[in-house]
Design goal:
Oxidized Rhodanese, domain 1, alpha/beta, single chain, 2 domains, elongated, 9 strands, two-stranded antiparallel ribbon, about 210 residues
């Protein structure tokens, strides 16, 4: 159930039980006034390629509410953003405990995609690959799984070991929060400018 916040325009800010939805332009103004700390919960390679200048980085894959709280001064709130708004929603839920500390949590509606649609400024580094490491992992795993399955069907059933190995690797990555393939891709020439990002996001790519 949602209700309109009384202090802001109903089109720009909407309150929920644990966090507040806020539109990009309203967020920009409140960050400029020092009322909110903006935190980017995308992965490091995504942040390195394209970012909002005032945003600090705290990837959802290793999110810690205490870290977010340490960046907030008395009287300030915190706002999370990602690419399209889904990962930042997860961050808001994970940061629900901040309300007990008097910190109001905000989610930037639509993420950095909505920010750009409003013609708000971003910093861009074209030396960093436009395809995030998480998506690169998905592409590589998908191609290898399809190739292994085709070889097992048409050439030799023993090639089923390829998709089986990939499945085991994904299970290990999900259980431990580490991803060897992401680590390898992170040091490739087209990703080096991303600062050695080696984590696999555990959420969706929105």
């Amino acid at each position: 159930m949602q209700s309109t916040a009384t202090a802001q325009s109903p089109e720009s800010v909407v309150a929920t039980s644990t966090f507040v939805e806020i539109a990009p332009r309203e967020l920009q103004a409140r960050v400029a006034r020092g009322e909110l700390v903006l935190i980017d919960v995308r992965e490091p390679d995504e942040h390195a390629r394209e970012r909002i200048a005032s945003a600090r980085l705290l990837p959802l894959s290793r999110f810690n509410a205490d870290t977010a709280a340490s960046w907030v001064s008395p009287g300030q709130g915190v706002a999370f953003h990602c690419r399209g708004g889904r990962r930042s929603l997860d961050a808001c839920r994970m940061a629900a405990s901040l309300a007990a500390r008097g910190i109001v949590v905000h989610n930037m509606t639509g993420g950095i995609d909505a920010w750009k649609k409003d013609a708000l400024p971003v910093e861009l580094d074209t030396k960093v690959s436009g395809i995030s490491i998480m998506r690169q992992v998905q592409i590589v795993v998908g191609v290898l799984a399809l190739t292994g399955s085709a070889l097992a069907w048409f050439v030799d059933p023993r090639f089923v070991a390829i998709p089986a190995f990939l499945g085991a690797g994904l299970t290990f990555a999900g259980a431990t929060g580490t991803c060897a393939l992401a680590s390898i891709l992170g040091v490739m020439p087209w990703n080096r400018a991303a600062g050695g990002a080696k984590s696999c996001s555990t959420g969706t790519c929105g």
